[in-house]
Design brief:
The protein is an alpha/beta fold and 333 residues long. It is built from 10 helices and 14 strands. An 8-stranded parallel beta barrel has the order 7-8-9-10-11-12-13-14, surrounded by 5 helices.
């Protein structure tokens, strides 16, 4: 249930109403926008008398929210959320250009890539330290050493860093990581999501390869229900009958999510397509459909990459993609 307060409602009046609602064992989520204040009521709202609440002098309207996700719902939070990662803002018109290698391989590699993508306009560095791989014999990442090398690249370039967590037992290693990524395979690892909800770290939550949009939003709700509202959603392709690409990039999810939620949405065309030739057009399409950012894989020598070289752009290719994305965003703004 949501209650929309009238313009001119004082902070004291709003707080009095909030205290009254909390006395009914409800959690109250307050969203103060540029024009209106919205109170989101979470819990057993069946005990709330909608007619009584609507009749209060400071209440403009009261509505029941039928969707199971509450805090991620745009009805609870009409204005776009803006997530801060270091000095970089994501959402609300702020665009994240996230780039870097699939896996951190050595100090020379990650710093070279970091410097090149920053020169091309990237504002966040990605790199895998823990790698979930289909085969147990494939390269699994440098783990703690990989995070250390990412932090060295951050020190050298000033770029905030994002890397994936696979096990909550490693959370202490992520203390200086700017954004923690939850991969597609862990989108419904609810124990992990709840633990991340107890942090104040920005979380990039990838859509699972067979999950619906509502399931993605419910996973975000798991994190938000524990108090962490710093969430970025990521569309990275879903599994369909098509075999020409690794996955099918569902770009329609971007405007749909913008209708349903206030959380920013970024697109990962690298994992969606699995082919370097498809990354540039899909990155451009993501910018054109209103994504709040893109995340692409860049390697200084893709043919020798230990992971996903076939979908990794070279620094020169990334420079071209970044320039095209900027032109598209200028054209649609």
């Amino acid at each position: 249930m949501i209650a929309i307060l009238k313009r001119g409602t004082s902070a004291q009046q709003a707080q009095h109403l909030i205290d009254w609602l909390k006395n009914m064992n409800l959690d109250v989520h307050v969203s103060t926008g540029t024009e209106i204040t919205v109170l989101g009521l979470i819990g057993d709202t069946s005990r709330v008398d909608m007619e009584l609440l609507s009749s209060l002098e400071i209440v403009d309207s009261v509505k029941r929210v039928s969707e199971p996700y509450k805090q991620a719902n745009r009805k609870f939070h009409p204005n776009d959320s803006v997530i801060q990662a270091g000095q970089v803002s994501i959402g609300g018109g702020n665009f994240a250009l996230i780039a870097g290698p699939c896996s951190v391989e050595c100090e020379e590699q990650i710093i070279e890539v970091a410097q090149s993508v920053k020169k091309s306009g990237a504002n966040i560095l990605r790199g895998g330290a823990f790698k979930p791989r289909t085969s147990p014999y494939a390269f699994q990442g440098l783990k703690a050493e990989g995070i250390r090398l990412l932090l060295e690249a951050k020190k050298a370039t000033g770029l905030p860093i994002i890397t994936e967590i696979m096990d909550i037992r490693t959370l202490d290693l992520f203390e200086d990581v700017d954004i923690i990524q939850v991969g597609a395979r862990n989108m419904q690892n609810f124990d992990l999501l709840q633990e991340l909800g107890s942090t104040n770290k920005p979380i990039l939550l990838k859509r699972g390869l067979a999950n619906t949009i509502q399931e993605l939003l419910m996973s975000a709700e798991y994190i938000m229900s524990r108090g962490n509202e710093n969430i970025i959603l990521c569309e990275r392709g879903i599994r369909t009958y098509e075999t020409a690409t690794r996955n099918t990039l569902d770009l329609s999810a971007v405007p749909v999510l913008h209708e349903l939620t206030h959380l920013p949405v970024v697109v990962d065309p690298s994992h969606a397509t699995g082919r370097v030739s498809l990354v540039p057009p899909m990155a451009a399409a993501a910018a054109a459909c209103g994504a709040d950012g893109i995340m692409v894989e860049v390697h200084n020598n893709p043919s020798c990459a230990l992971c996903d070289g076939a979908q990794s752009l070279t620094p020169v290719q990334f420079d071209e993609v970044a320039a095209k994305v900027r032109r598209i965003r200028e054209a649609i703004s």
